[in-house]
Amino acid sequence: MQNLQWYPGHMAKTRRLIEANLKLIDVVVEILDARIPFSGRNPHFDDIIKNKPRLLVLNKADLADKNRTKLWIDWYAEQGLKVIPISCTTGMGINTVLTEARALIQDKIDRERERGRNRTLKIMMVGIPNVGKSSLINRLIGKASTKTGDKPGVTRGKQWLRIKGDAELLDTPGILPPKFEDQTVAVKLAYTGAIKDEIMNTELLAYSLCDYLRDNYPNELCTRYKLDTVEGLKGYEVLEKIGKKRGFVISGGEIDMERAANMVLDELRGAKIGHITLETPSQLNEQE
Fold it and tell me: Can you name the residues that pair with 125 across neighbouring β-strands?
């Protein structure tokens, strides 16, 4: 795979925006893609947010492997972080976001109430691009007041929004780290579309994806593409078989590998291959 770097100027500006506004915030809600619960975190958020109360939200949980999602919830609990799975598409878990955010500062809310004051919960929403921040905000406020899209980099600038239940939310654009120390992290981000396809070699990306699916989800892979087996095959061989099955044959009997690659990536992102999570806590240890 090519060495991936991705840090547009607006991401540096976003970091400064987060740091400047953090003092106004009660709770940070960090949105993650449930399919990459570790790789989908910007490691710099820990340095930026420091000890501010934080709630992790695993969006797109309806696309992920439920068993692996449970492993990640337990793993983050061991790190002292509360995690809730949600789906902005189906609405699953949306109503628990504000409840759990309030619970993190319940002591402060109670003290304010004893003094006769109702505290407006102030939330900052952060996350990498394309994890569904705008979609979650639209769910929370009950109307589509922020622009959403399925491409990274839609949200720009900062927006204060009033949300139901006496709470206010500061939205921020998606921000990736300035460089990827671990290229396997960058590749997982690319699988899910957090990095624009335009800067990728999609064939190489699909080869490595097929390698991962062969080792972790062989039954789903074979069922989706009507393959007898993928055991012992390299990623490009798996993709070639898929292309042949789908009839992506060009002149000379060759397989249109670019077309096959784009299809596999699209079908992974749409959960057509199955409910796939691209990492487990134990696999982190294997990478170290």
Answer: 29, 171
In terms of Cα–Cα distance, which of 100, 98, 119, 130 is closest to 32?
A: 130
159-163/121-127 β-pairing:
unpaired
Phi, psi of 126 (to 5 degrees): -130, 165
Pairing of strands 167-171, 159-163: antiparallel
- The predicted-structure confidence for 55-103, as pLDDT tens digits, reads as follows 999 999 999 999 999 999 999 999 999 999 999 999 999 999 999 999 9
Strand order in the sheet with 121-127: 82-85, 54-59, 27-33, 121-127, 167-171, 159-163
Cα dihedral sign for 227, 232, 235, 237? Answer: negative
Residue 267 vs residues 120, 139, 257: alpha-carbon distances, Å: 42, 25, 15
Residue 163 near residue 169, CB atoms below 8 Å: yes
Task: Specify the DSSP class assigned to residue 118.
Answer: P
pTM of the model: 0.85
Distance CA(185)–CA(232), nearest Å, equals 25
β-bridge partners, 122: 168
Longest Cα pair distance anywhere in the chain, in angstroms? Answer: 80
List all residues 6 or more positions away from 242 whose beta carbon is below 8 Å from its beta carbon.
210, 225, 227, 260, 263, 264
User: Nearest-CA neighbor of 33 among 286, 278, 258, 287?
Assistant: 278
